[in-house]
Specification:
By secondary structure, this protein is of the alpha/beta class. The chain has 12 helices and 6 strands.
Length: 278
């Protein structure tokens, strides 16, 4: 039987597979033995070990139970999540941990619909476009779409967070994915505005220099009333928790809300954009 040599330095996925094999062999288990303990086939075990198949959350949790790692600091689940978020900007995985627990979420976006408001089809077009440009791999594109779906699902909890969203007018006029995708996305925005825990505003081009941000901005208010800011450039993201740095950003957001259109006028602008979708 041929045994493929593994190179754990080739990629995080390869390191995951090499560690899986190492722990299995240290216990004297065959791939069939581990398959019996995880409810996966030996063929699947082999594919994960050699990097031919990426690990999943379910597989990782099954491996943790088999090896007795559940609840430890060095689980396969943790390694899986590191692989999954590896193509995200620096700082973003840290931000998402706070986002899922925030009592209030304030967003400002330029150029594209904020991720938490994107339809799956709109998100897929953006991810696939990045893959075609070579910025990410097709597999990473799939991970981005799945990760966004998880972020959106995390907000569906018993106590819904208050969500206040201001979008630059460019977000609704930039065509993404063609008529069907863009129409459905604009419909999704109008539906979002009807929810009891949301406020949606458009910052029109006409406010000019009174727009207080020239970059996307996320502000989270936690249950203890602390505020966390997240902003990103093309290369990296940054989470800011220091009150002295966050408060001016919060003030700027309030000023932006005052300059933006009220929600009713914003929805009317979205509906007009929908009618004129090319």
């Amino acid at each position: 039987m041929n045994r493929k040599e593994l190179n754990p330095d080739a990629s995080p996925q390869a390191a995951y597979g090499a560690r899986l094999r190492s722990l299995r062999e240290a216990r004297g288990w065959t791939q069939d033995d581990l398959a019996d303990r995880t409810d996966y086939s030996s063929v699947h075990i082999s594919a994960v070990e050699t990097g031919r198949k990426p690990p999943t959350l379910r597989f990782s949790r099954s491996a943790d139970r088999a090896f007795g790692l559940t609840g430890s600091a060095d689980t396969f689940e943790r390694e899986y999540r590191e692989i999954k978020t590896g193509n995200l900007l620096e700082g973003f995985p840290e931000y998402v941990k706070y986002e899922g627990r925030a009592a209030e979420i304030r967003l400002f976006q330029i150029g594209i619909i904020p991720g938490l408001l994107q339809t799956p089809e709109y998100a897929r077009v953006l991810a696939d476009s990045a893959a075609r440009r070579g910025a990410i791999t097709p597999e990473q594109a799939d991970e981005r779409v799945a990760f966004l779906a998880e972020r959106q699902a995390a907000l569906e909890r018993p106590r819904l967070p208050m969500m206040l969203v201001v979008m630059d007018e460019s977000c609704i006029h930039r065509p993404v994915g063609g008529l069907r995708v863009m129409t459905a996305q604009l419909d999704r925005l109008a539906q979002f505005a009807e929810l009891p825990n949301t406020v949606l505003q458009i910052a029109p081009y006409g406010i000019g220099e009174r727009r207080t941000f020239d970059f996307p901005m996320n502000l989270l208010t936690m249950s203890d009333l602390t505020v966390i800011a997240y902003a990103e450039s093309q290369l990296r993201g940054h989470v800011e928790r220091e009150t002295a740095a966050v408060l001016p950003l919060l003030s700027a957001y309030h000023q932006l809300q005052a300059e933006a259109l009220p929600q009713a006028a914003s929805v009317a602008m979205i509906n007009e954009a929908r009618k004129g979708t090319p």
